[in-house]
Amino acid sequence: MQNGYIESFNARLRDEFLNEHWFETLHRARSATSIWRQYHNEVRPYGSIGRIPSARFAELHRQRAGDAARPVSTTMQID
């Protein structure tokens, strides 16, 4: 076992995608892979991250990281 995350992904890719399709051309393989990748990242919910898709989780993480990086202003503006 080298990397648990990669091995888990490879098993999922094999079980959910590669074992289910027969590719006759490289174009069909690329097209089907693109559709599966979009579903896997943008639609499929993951229980380990709150039943949301991984793309949404990444977006929320970037927003929180951006908020944490902003300095907190100690001055008040008075209009």
Main sheet specs: none
| Low-confidence parts | none
How much helical structure, as a percent, in the residues? 55-70%
Q: Give me the Rg, rounded.
A: 20 Å
Q: How many runs of DSSP E, i.e. beta strands? A: 0
**What structural class results from the helix and strand content?**
mainly alpha
Question: Given the C-alpha coordinates, what overall shape results?
Answer: elongated
For the terminal residues, how far apart are their CA atoms?
A: 61 Å
DSSP strand content: under 5%
Structure annotation, total helices = 3
Q: Note the run of SSEs as H and E.
A: HHH
**Mean of pLDDT:** 87
Present the secondary structure layout.
Elements: H1 4-16, H2 26-42, H3 54-69
At a glance:
By secondary structure, the chain is mostly helical. 58% of the residues lie in helices and 0% in strands.
Question: What would your notes on this structure say?
Answer:
This protein is mainly alpha-helical and 79 residues long. It has a domain at 35-61. 58% of the residues lie in helices and 0% in strands. The protein has three helices and no strands. The chain has helices at 4-16, 26-42, 54-69. The protein is elongated, with a radius of gyration of 20 Å.
